[in-house]
Design brief:
The protein is of the alpha/beta class and about 325 residues long. About 40% of the residues lie in helices and about 20% in strands. It has helices at about 15-30, 35-40, 40-50, 110-120, 135-155, 170-185, 205-210, 220-230, 265-280, 300-315, and strands at about 65-70, 75-80, 90-95, 120-125, 160-165, 190-195, 255-260, 285-290. An eight-stranded mixed beta sheet has the order 1-2-4-3-5-6-7-8, sandwiched between helices. Strand 3, helix 4 and strand 4 form a beta-alpha-beta unit. Helix 5 packs across helix 6 (about 170-185). The longest helix is centred in the middle third of the chain and has 21 residues, at about 135-155. About 45% of the residues are buried.
């Protein structure tokens, strides 16, 4: 079996020319982009929806359906659903964007891909965003969506096989959601967790602190600004509900942890993978040489490789 922590994966010669060129292009495209905390979160969200900058405008799927469920604060939580005709299970997807940006309707092609390749109904949650709605609003909405699925998936989708996952802040929220369902609702029924370059220590891991100012999607200053918007009044940022790296991780589902070696959140994945295993849970680690934060969002052989690994991991839940 290949060692997932093979040091060769972290060496410069492991990075393909294609990945190097993609990283150079991303740095060039992001260099002139204004910072969201300067322009404001609302303006930055609108720019992303227009496709300004390196991220293309979202493509809406005619297959997608949107429905609303009640939140724990009396709010309404939209869910974006793309499902095969006869789902084999459900994938609760939590989008990224630093708890500030993004939306459940901004990755329909990803949801379509998941539905087609895994047979799972892809359900993406529109959780409330900071800074307008700081912690615990976003985690509360993800918890409510997961609890709704735990109670209604069989009736709604014909299967109670549940999986969960997300990218970046979505990976963080997926881990927090699993912990909340275990600790607050005595529910450990999610069978797979697909955790993609998540942030698991909001007091900042060494790789977050040391990444610096190169604008390869996510800099140290970006992390600091995102976390401050999400946690404007929280001083203890190592609380397990905030930084799941510090939680007791017993009775967690099998997880696939994916990250690139050029990601400021590299340590988060390495540390969380180790703690997941140490708690007695099954875990897989996928490391992608030269992959920057968000590399799965850009067409490349590296992104294709990661997607295939994730598809296989999720499809095996019903195998």
């Amino acid at each position: 079996m290949t060692n997932p922590l093979d040091p060769a994966l972290f060496r410069p010669d492991a990075v393909t020319p294609e990945t190097r060129e993609l990283n150079r292009t991303m740095v060039q495209m992001l260099a002139p982009a204004p910072d969201w905390w300067v322009t404001g979160a609302e303006a930055s969200r609108a720019a992303r929806r227009r496709g300004d900058g390196p991220f293309p405008a979202p493509v809406m799927s005619p297959r997608a359906q949107t429905r609303s469920i009640p939140g724990k604060d009396g709010n309404s939580i939209p869910l974006r659903i793309i499902a095969p005709d006869q789902p084999r299970g459900v994938y609760l997807h939590i989008h990224g964007g630093g708890w500030v940006l993004g939306g459940c309707d901004m990755q329909d092609p990803k949801l379509e891909h998941i539905a087609e390749k895994t047979g799972l109904a892809a359900v993406s949650v529109e959780y409330r965003l900071a800074p307008e709605h700081p912690y615990p609003a976003g985690p509360d909405d993800c918890e409510a969506a997961a609890l709704w699925l735990a109670r209604n998936a069989k009736a709604e989708f014909g299967s109670d096989v549940l999986t969960i996952g997300g990218e970046s802040a979505g990976g963080h929220l997926a881990a927090v959601t699993l912990l909340r369902l275990r600790d607050r609702h005595d529910f450990t029924g999610f069978r797979r967790a697909n955790l993609v370059y998540g942030a698991y220590d909001l007091s900042l891991t060494p790789s977050q602190r040391l990444f610096g100012n190169e604008r390869l999607v996510l800099r140290t200053i970006d992390i600091v600004q995102f976390v401050n918007a999400f946690l404007p009044t929280v001083t203890d940022r190592r609380q397990p509900d905030i930084s799941p790296l510090y939680a007791s991780l017993h009775h967690m589902p099998p997880a696939l942890f994916s990250v690139g070696t050029a990601d400021a959140l590299l340590d988060d994945t390495l540390f969380m993978y180790a703690r997941w295993l140490a708690a007695g849970n099954a875990a897989e680690l996928a490391i992608y040489p030269g992959g920057a934060h968000g590399f799965t969002l850009f067409p490349s052989a590296l992104a294709d490789q990661a997607a295939t690994r994730m598809d296989d991991f999720l499809a095996r839940v019903t195998g």
